[in-house]
Amino acid sequence: MKLPVLFLVGPTASGKSSLAFELAKATGAEIVSSDSRQIYKHMTIGTAAPSLHELECVQHHFVGELEPDQPFSAFDFFREGRKRISEILERGKPVVVAGGSGLYFSALKNGISDIPADTEVRDKLLIRLENEGREKLFEELKAIDPQAAQSRDSTKTQRVIRALEVWYASGKTMTWWQQHDKPEPFPFPYLCAGLAPEREDLYNRINSRVLDMVKAGLKNEVQFLLEKGFTSQTNALKTVGYEEYFPFFRGEYDENRAIELVQRNTRHYAKRQMTWFKKDSDVVWFNPSDPETSEKVLKFWMG
Fold first, then answer.
1. DSSP 8-class letter at 56
2. Structural domain of residue 272, as residue ranges?
């Protein structure tokens, strides 16, 4: 029986990767990671990347493929992800798309506009960010593209800079591009399953997983990245689990404080993830604390 593509979403530490692995083993599927950071090498601990055993048992895509300073956007994922899914299906294998990046999930499933990019413009904006501060750039975006500014958080400077980059690179706003360059809908049958732990359970899972990461050598992983020449300005490292360790290495606080911040910021991130995914009416939700969740999701997928 030809199965639809299964999108498996949910907040960090909800059990997506392990469930995807179980489902893949049960059906012979290949896994497409929709985690925006697992695609990078040398970042296995902080991104909770699949283990060597899992990678050997099941074919994974977009895991450990790029160096941290290599650019890879949601549009890149949309284009390459659909290409790989097509190739997997042509080989007669099912596909599980699993990950916590709402933007990557949306780009792959709903499509995304091919909006211009200009690294030279972006670099100049990053210099301005450092010299002028994020609020100045956010006020500039509000004047140029009020609709884009309304949908952005001024503290999320990457998205603010991206919107300004589009304007200065093309002379048209992000909003204009999104309205005039309509994305293509997902070309394959699909289903969406979500894992939604109770809040207290989720927060306990997050706190425990961070401690497991620390025991596994998270500090050493960040140190290794620094020694390889990557910095806090490397885009891939502007993420929870890594950015909290840079001040530690600068001597601004001890490792206990770094761990506390990783736990806190991961909880905040999980809350934002749930807000994003809950807006998608395609997602059917399951409780990962239910011992029969794996069987229920498999039944849901197989019809």
1. H
2. 5-112+184-302
Q: Tell me: the pLDDT tens digits for 72-119?
A: 988 899 999 999 999 999 999 999 999 999 999 999 999 987 888 888
Give residue for tokens 């019809």.
303
Indicate if 38 and 146 belong to the same structural domain.
no
Q: Which residues contact 256 (CB under 8 A, 6 or more apart)?
A: none
Residues 127 and 86 in one domain: no
Q: Which of 126, 182, 125, 133 is nearest to 155 (CA)?
A: 133
Smallest Cα–Cα separation from 244: which of 202, 209, 272, 210?
210
Q: Are residues 123 and 108 in the same domain?
A: no
Q: How far apart are CA 281 and CA 140, in angstroms?
A: 34
Q: Are 171 and 189 within one domain?
A: no
Kindly state whether residues 80 and 189 are assigned to the same domain: yes
DSSP structural state of residue 66: B
Residues 165 and 46 in one domain: no
User: Do 257 and 291 sit in the same domain of this protein?
Assistant: yes
**Whole-prediction pTM:** 0.84
Q: pLDDT tens, 182-213?
A: 788 899 999 999 999 999 999 999 999 999 99
Beta-carbon contacts of 47 under 8 Å, excluding residues fewer than 6 positions away, are 35, 37, 38, 40, 241
Location of structure tokens 């099941």: 58
Q: How far is CA 225 from CA 49, 230, 231, 265, in A?
A: 16, 6, 8, 21
CATH of the domain at 230: 3.40.50.300
